[in-house]
Design brief:
mainly alpha, 12 helices, two-stranded antiparallel ribbon
Length: 339
Amino acid sequence: MEAATTVAGDRSVLERSPGGRLPDQVLRWGLTALATLILVLIAYFFIRLIGQSRLALDRFGLSFVFGNDWDVAHNIFRGAALVVGTLITSAIALLIGVPVAVAAAVFTIELCPRRLRGPLSILVDLLAAVPSVVYGLWGVFVLCPKLLPAEKWFASTFSFIPWIGGGTPTLYNYFIAGLILAIMILPIVAAISREVIATVPAENKEAALALGATRWEMIRLAVLPYSRPGITGGAMLGLGRALGETIAVVLVIGNAPTIGQHLFSQGYSLAAVIANEFNEAANQPLHSSALFAAGLVLFIVTLIVNIIARWFVSRGGHGTRGTGATGMTIASGPAEGSA
């Protein structure tokens, strides 16, 4: 105990003068104030959005979220199509982007030659430096025309699958928007997954190999279970990015305020409608209030996603992480690299 409390000059922390303890107190209260300020800002945004969207919410009530009729010409604003479009494109982004990002992270840490790890990591991270408008324009001029024949073939071949197949694909649709978002969230999820996988203790991997596991079995039984909470947190951060993305989605989703009949239909999203219609709604109180209500719904959805992410990370950070085929625990303990 004496060693833990002894400082320079053979004086304990408790023997410091009030002036000597002042920097610690300033740091403590400063960090507390900054953390409190973040909560105050979130509360302010929430209250402000409620106030600005009250006109639309009073008129349409819950039908603003569950009604499918967004008609600017007749001042009817029910945004179920916007909510559905946001959730569909974000789900597609997760289904495509997260497996690719995790695979890239596993390859970089476990399989890639050491001299190539740095350049490969930098190359993946550079995807985050590309502006969203560039992704959108690339989607408009390259991705949409090139993938349209493949989309038509897929819709025709798998027409027996509800909503996935059938119908006539349009040039701009949910799938293209989700694919663009998958590319945009890939560097975030890959970077977090890479850092988490790098924290897996070498003893766990060596134990799996000593038990006769192959390289893939070692990754499956020792690396991925230990890293699962952090990877889940990274995926949820990527989902938050996908939910709020605006410009790229505006360019490739089709901007049709209706719920699409299949995967390759045109749609709309909450962020896209705000970006598209905010200027023209400046002198129309009800329209402007409806857009603020759309922002409020997006805010709540994003907040729920972050709460669920924290729950998954906290839940995965306790108890056994992975159990091998022989019944022996391969990886356990707290998630040191959890996001």
